[in-house]
From TrEMBL:
Residues 1-629 form the PLA2c domain. PROSITE patterns: PLA2C (PS51210). The keyword Lipid metabolism applies. It catalyses: a 1-acyl-sn-glycero-3-phosphocholine + H2O = sn-glycerol 3-phosphocholine + a fatty acid + H(+). It comes from the Eukaryota. Belongs to the lysophospholipase family. One of its GO terms (cellular component) is extracellular region. Its EC number is 3.1.1.5. This is Lysophospholipase. It comes from Metschnikowia aff. pulcherrima.
Length: 629
């Protein structure tokens, strides 16, 4: 074969096709636009893709995204099967994502915002409130004047113009007033809101396609779209990280949540539970509604809480830094008049006397009430959320795992290959493999508050994520400039624990305790001890990872994560470069090797792939990563 031959692979596989998952990292429009090019390369409907990677998209089952990658997932879902390159060409990216706020150095803002501890910040806020309403009107040259002048001024107008007369200022103010009006219904209904509610509406206005910007659009209703009903739509997964304010948790211990059109929950050992996404917003205890009716057999649940804008905004909450920055600046304006202060707070949906949640944690999405109240799953391990009245959810890459592998490493989904596009900003807005290392740390951890999944293989207990190169090796071997396959050889590429009783670990019979015997120690833990540390999966093999890094193949695609204005020409060039990332500039050897990667897991279990794998040997040696001895 000179190139990837989809029909030939299909014949070898027979009735059961390979289960393919696609993961798209965060990275703002950089990830969304470049990722769209990657998907287009795999779409059989894209011109000239038929003899390259075309068809892989139609053969894939799952797609997951974080932050900017999630915008692509959401856009693809909302466009109901329209080819992604066509869909994006109908959208304009010529105006800022957040009205009145140009591209800004948000990483610097983040450092500024994080300089104060929550307790210190809380005290300063309330001190501001106590003296605020006795202050004089805004004086020219003051902090407040400088802020308003910067935030609402028009480049074409004199800086001394008022908000009411400056065209851009009025447009910006109206934009935020509209956000407030649109979120007001949720507050009026008695639900708590956060700045993410407003951010979610901003995302809806700018990211969602025409006809899909409605305030009441819910994720659960999209199962009724034609492309979903006829199974031509990829199953979308929206990632997020649950946070306990004041508690620091890195990727090893973080609580990973997912939203999909049917459920909301987590696979992690602290919860391992899901709730029907239709029931978000309901007062539940142990999975049952606490709002009773006169008929004891019936209770009341809430629907409509799974707002598409809120969920999309939740997983891209890093951008809420801008909102948070503006919000904190407003609170620190001690020289504002009470009337102007009140007006600005109302623009951002905050009252003159906000709740502690609104003050302390504006960077998190607030999901209240907690749908997992009083849930105590068997064998739970990790920080419990069963007593929490509300859930605080952060950006899907908040723990450093910017690529959402977690949904693809679930036994029940049986994913065999993950096509992972990484547009993370590690060095000069290009990736250097750091997000891969963060996920590896999680699944290779020796001490975690969670129970880590592991699988049995040839008498060994193996971790479910492959060995990953260091950032130095990643850069020195130019792994960002070419596709890399991780986990090709299960024996070699996955960390393992040596077991003295292979039969017992390979079987599901828990009456026999397998022995774990690290080479350096003579330890024989009991099955109970093993299972307290690991979730042991039998008859499971983790997916091979086809890693595609954002790289300048045809265009400098290392734009800022927080750049939100692109011309039509720039959009096209970002798409084209993403296409070239996926095809490795139409490299013939690579295009053939993708077929090898797709069947690698299946081929290891069947002799009918022998001849095919002989053709794969050379290319796999080239593209597969093998850890240095």
């Amino acid at each position: 074969m000179s190139k990837y031959n989809f029909s030939e692979v299909s014949e070898l596989l027979g009735e059961k096709m390979v289960t393919i998952g696609i993961s798209v990292s965060g990275g703002g429009y950089r990830s969304m636009l470049s990722g769209a090019g990657v998907l287009s390369a795999m779409d059989i409907r894209t011109p000239n893709s038929e003899n390259h990677l075309g068809g892989i998209l139609q053969s894939s089952t799952y797609i997951a995204g974080n932050s900017g990658g999630l915008w692509l997932v959401a856009n693809n879902l909302l466009n109901d099967g329209l080819p992604i390159y066509e869909a994006l060409r109908t959208q304009s990216f010529a105006t800022p994502l957040i009205e009145g706020v140009p591209d800004v150095p948000v990483s610097q803002l983040r450092a500024t915002l994080d300089a104060q501890s929550p307790r210190e910040y809380n005290a300063s806020v309330w001190e501001t409130y106590s003296v605020f309403f006795n202050q004089s009107d805004v004086e020219k040259g003051s902090l407040a004047h400088a802020f308003l002048d910067t935030f609402f001024k028009s480049k074409s107008q004199d800086n001394d113009q008022s908000i009411d007369t400056a065209p851009l200022g009025r447009k910006s103010l109206d934009f935020y007033k509209d956000l407030n009006i649109e979120v007001r219904a949720k507050k009026t209904a008695g639900f708590q809101v956060s700045l993410i509610d407003y951010w979610g509406r901003a995302v809806s206005k700018k990211i969602f396609p025409q006809g899909k910007k409605a305030i009441d659009l819910c994720l659960s209703t999209l199962v009724e779209s034609p492309s979903f009903e006829n199974f031509s739509q990829l199953f979308p997964i929206f990632g997020s990280v649950e946070r306990m304010p004041g508690v620091t948790e890195l990727s090893v211990d973080s609580h990973l949540f997912e939203f999909n059109p049917f459920e909301f929950g987590s696979w992690d050992s602290y919860l391992n539970s899901f709730v029907d996404i239709n029931f978000l917003g309901s007062k539940l205890e142990n999975g049952f509604s606490t709002i009773k009716t006169k008929n004891e057999d019936y209770s009341v649940c809430i629907s409509g809480y799974d707002n598409m804008g809120l969920i999309t905004g939740t997983s891209s909450g890093l951008f809420n830094t801008v909102f948070q920055y503006v919000y904190k600046m407003i609170l620190q304006m001690e020289d504002l008049s009470s009337s102007l202060f009140s007006m600005l707070l109302r623009v951002f949906g905050i009252t003159n006397h906000p709740t502690p949640d609104e003050i302390l944690h504006p960077e998190y999405a607030l999901y209240s009430p907690n749908p997992f109240k009083a849930i105590s799953p068997p064998r739970a391990k990790g920080r419990s959320i069963s007593d929490a009245p509300s859930l605080f959810l952060a950006d899907g890459g908040d723990d450093g795992q910017n690529l959402p592998f977690h949904p693809m490493l679930t036994k029940g989904r049986e994913v065999e290959v993950v096509l992972a596009f990484d547009a993370t900003s590690d060095y000069e807005n290009y990736p250097n493999g750091t997000t891969l290392k963060q996920t590896a740390k999680r699944y290779h951890a020796s001490n975690s508050s969670l129970r880590i999944p592991a699988f049995s293989f040839n008498g060994k207990l193996k971790r479910i994520f492959p060995v990953i190169p260091s950032s130095e090796e990643f850069v020195s071997k130019s792994m960002a400039s070419r596709p890399v396959f991780f986990g090709c050889n299960i024996t070699r590429d996955y960390p393992s624990e040596i077991l003295t009783d292979a039969k017992s670990i390979e079987s599901a019979d828990t009456s026999m305790a397998p022995k774990l015997q690290p080479e350096s120690k003579n330890i024989h833990p009991s099955l109970e001890e093993l299972e307290s540390k690991f979730d042991i999966w039998h008859d499971y093999q983790p997916p091979l990872i086809v890693y595609l890094a954002n790289y300048n193949h045809s265009y400098a695609s290392n734009t800022s994560t927080f750049r939100t204005v692109y011309s039509d020409t720039e959009v096209l060039k970002m798409l084209e470069n993403g296409y070239n990332v996926a095809t490795y500039n139409n490299n013939t050897e690579y295009l053939r090797c993708v077929g090898c990667a797709l069947i690698q897991r299946r081929a290891a279990k069947s002799s009918k792939f022998v001849n095919y794998l002989k053709q794969c040997k050379t290319c796999l040696e080239k593209f597969c990563y093998a850890a240095s001895e």
